[in-house]
Amino acid sequence: MDLLYQILGITTVASPLVLLAVLGIPCLFSRPFSEQMIARTVYFCVWIGLFASVGILATMLISGDRHVPIELGHWIDLPEQHFHFHLKFVFDRLSVPFAILTFVLCGTIGAFTSRYLHREPGYVRFYIAFSLFMAGMIFASLAGTIEVLFFGWELVGISSALLIAFFHERRNPVRNGFMAWCVYRIADAAFLIAAVLMHHLTGAGDFELLMGQGAWPEGVATITHSQALLVGLLLVVAAAGKSALVPFSGWLPRAMEGPTSSSAIFYGALSVHLGAFLLLRISPILELSMWLSGTVVVLGLLTAIFATITGRAQSDIKTSLAYASLTQVGIIVVEIGLGLRYIALIHIVGHALMRTLQLLRAPSLLYDYHVLENAIDGHLPASGSRIGSLVPERWKQWCYLFAMERGFLDELLSRFIVRPFVRCFRCFDALERKWTNFLSGDSSRESDDVTTQPEIIEELKV
Amino acid sequence: MLELHLPWLELAILTPLVGVVVSLFNKNAEQTRLVAIVFSGLSLAMGIGAWEDFNTLKVFEAHDRWDLVEPLFGPDVVVIDEFNAPLLALTSLMFFLTPLATLRTKIKRFPFRMNLISQFLMLSTLACRGPWIIISLMGLQTLPIVWELRTRGKSSRGFVIHMGLFLVLLIGGWSMIDLEDPSHEHSIAAIMLLTLAILIRSGCAPMHCWMTDLFEKASLGSSLLFVSPMIGAYAAVRLLLPVAPDWAMRIVALASLFTAVYSAGMALVQTESRRFFCYLILSNASLVLVGLEVVTPIGLTGALSTWIAVCLSLSGFGLTLRAIESRVGRLSLNDYHGLYSQMPLLATFFLLTGVATVGFPGTVGFAGIELIVEGAVEVYPYVGMAVVIATALNGIAIMRVYFRLFTGTIYQSSFCMEARWPERVGILVLSALIIGGGIWPQPGVKSRFHAAKEIMSRRETHTQAETDKHATLSAIPDDDMIAPTKREQASHTLTVE
């Protein structure tokens, strides 16, 4: 049985990595595969991964095992210093549904995109980022140690930023991709600090050492309340960044600049739930500290309320769906904070499937609306609740302004963090200029003469 | 000390010098380039040979079989050990790839002959252990740069002032250490002079302006080759680490930590690509120094691993930037250039090497950065977190520059601007090393751990010897006139330890 688990487990983990290697290596030699070949490779790897993960689920159900660790040895091992990065994957009631969900949705999106991006110049680029994302999701879902989870977490981050900026000949997608990347880096920094703290507390990054031996969700954390609060808060920041919880919600609607298929898989289905998944994984830590659980509940509530108000004033379908997703994610986070772990897990799976369908349907839905409106020679009747009529006019105006400005979150972050930071370092830069000019005895900066656009070597430049 | 099977080291060091002599017979720039490529390539082969030969001996250090320089400088001057073995090969690789990736249109601007001389000096520095020889070679290394700046008609004042001060402090500090009784703890003045010298050469803020000035005025290739082997960190290991007390190491570590964050912040607000690259190097080199100076096995292992990772990834990053500059000139970061459509391979490599510098998982830098964070947090629980902040800021800066250079618009050209085959060779070699080292980090980390242990044990042996002498002195009766001073020093040493 162990051998079977081992084979299936390794196959599950290896399939997205094989896909990444097969698609990526030819590109390094400037010999990318044809569209058809790429699509076939994607189908093949996703099917293999899906079969293996479903196989492991079936085996677990038959044998009654609830916790199957797959040990691949030490990735880095310094035994004298008791320092090691354990390459370990865990198949349990949390990770298996998430892995299967990943394969199902990635397969669906892979098939959808092979037609949606047919003959697009970025076809190969999309699938490379897609395979990077799938590898990241599988690693993060099945991680048995915090380092493996971090590995997957980072892969999801970079693929996400690249896919938001997929239409990179335009500036807006690029700016939005960059913004998402900035938030991810802050979240990643918090995650890395938490990982280091875990190493210090338990001597390793193994979840079992931190959260007890019991199978999820029955583990009991082995650290003190104050330690739980510290590590937990850092991980909550990491989760908030990844799942676009308040105050990091600004990047989510911007992320809709990417192709519909990546929007669906990232911000409707998988990536946006990764923060919630992290909170579920560390739920034994949340239980240790009332303050921590309270913080998670409040964060979830604030996010849900913010998203539901803001989503009502959005004028395009993808942004509305993004806020609808965020509302659900907020509710899922509240459920996790309240200790309703199975409900949260079911909620994640259900929401991911439904939102993917909605996002994939979005472009054709607009087309269908136009057809219907042409047919009836007028606008379709308005739908929705009448709660708005009960709210006083002044409140409504304020809510509308709040929604249009997306909660002023971007402005607050920009005014109180980004601008002071940039101003401060530009001031240092000016001081350095004076100092180097003084030392050189002339103008020290040739870079000042560099033109905004590179030298025009041809008139074809646009 | 065991011997290598062949005089690999001396051959690796002297081959570039032979190349210089051969190139003197060439008037043609194209031929000079060819000579530079061939001889730096041969030197690389010798460097790899030395490393492989050394690995077969299974010892910490070894020297050449027929020590050719022994009659001139004495025994065991040129030594290979676990610390410098990969650095020699890596530096040779950088010196090989730079002329290889120089486009034909730029061969008249790039000083190939000086490049070979610099390679000779760098390899000599890395292979030598004698303090005075290292100091002399570090002084000589500055000359090709000054020559280049003068040839280009640029002001070299900033560079000369900093390097002059560095050399004066280094010579002063080491002279005092030489003159002082080795059985005593070295004087604060001597250690401070050495520490300051190391801080200047490593570009610790606010003494880093020579580096930005250099990148502004010298060719990108020469600047890259002068800065990225991290000779300042090398001097810290060879000269400072064995003699400095813990307080001096802490000064360097904290100054480096500050520099790492400061440079990362500065990299984010730069409006031109070279200056950005300079701050990126500075930030990463400072992280290496942080790991070195926390003086724990984990921190030191992290620093040595990151050293190699940063050398690899920043060389690749710098060569990519140089390749782009060769095609479209110096690049402003105030606007988008949209170069992806013209050079997708270079764009991909730019991103790969960029994320590798910040320790992205799956790249060669990941293990090193994790270990440095671990080591820094172990010694400075709160301040050590600054390492994470620095890497986060660097990550943001790299992506910003990637987007600015390669996206945001379409750069149209009727001719192909993609990487030429020599550039592709460089890209593929470095990509393989960056990804291979990331997927399978254990051999590299293990080898760096052995080197770190040896460095630690040497430092401990030195400190222990001092402590033992002080303990012996403390047994001297109180009526001895010298005893109180000695006892005070001994107690100070023990307290510091």
From TrEMBL, chain A:
Main location: membrane
Mode of membrane association: Multi-pass membrane protein
Domain NADH:quinone oxidoreductase/Mrp antiporter transmembrane: 148-370
Record keyword Transmembrane helix present: yes
Record domain NADH-Ubiquinone oxidoreductase (complex I) chain 5 N-terminal: where: 80-127
Enzyme class: oxidoreductase
Source taxon at top rank: Bacteria
Annotated EC: 1.6.5.11
Pfam short name (any one): Proton_antipo_M
Keywords assigned: Membrane, Oxidoreductase, Transmembrane, Transmembrane helix
This protein's name: NADH-quinone oxidoreductase subunit 12
Species this protein is from: Mariniblastus fucicola
Automatic annotation (TrEMBL), chain B:
Gene Ontology annotations for the cellular component aspect, listed alphabetically: endomembrane system; membrane
Domain (NADH:quinone oxidoreductase/Mrp antiporter transmembrane) ranges: 184-393
Subcellular localization: Endomembrane system; Membrane
Main enzyme class: oxidoreductase
UniProt keyword Cell membrane, yes or no: no
Membrane spanning stretches: 6-25, 32-51, 83-103, 159-177, 189-211, 223-241, 247-269, 276-298, 304-324, 345-373, 379-403, 424-441
An annotated GO BP: ATP synthesis coupled electron transport
UniProt keyword list: Membrane, Oxidoreductase, Transmembrane, Transmembrane helix
Source organism superkingdom: Bacteria
Chief localization: membrane
GO MF annotations, alphabetized: NADH dehydrogenase (ubiquinone) activity; NADH dehydrogenase activity; ubiquinone binding
EC number: 1.6.5.11
Membrane topology of the entry: Multi-pass membrane protein
PANTHER family listed in its UniProt record: NADH-UBIQUINONE OXIDOREDUCTASE CHAIN 4
Name of this chain's protein: NADH-quinone oxidoreductase subunit M
Organism in which the protein naturally occurs: Mariniblastus fucicola
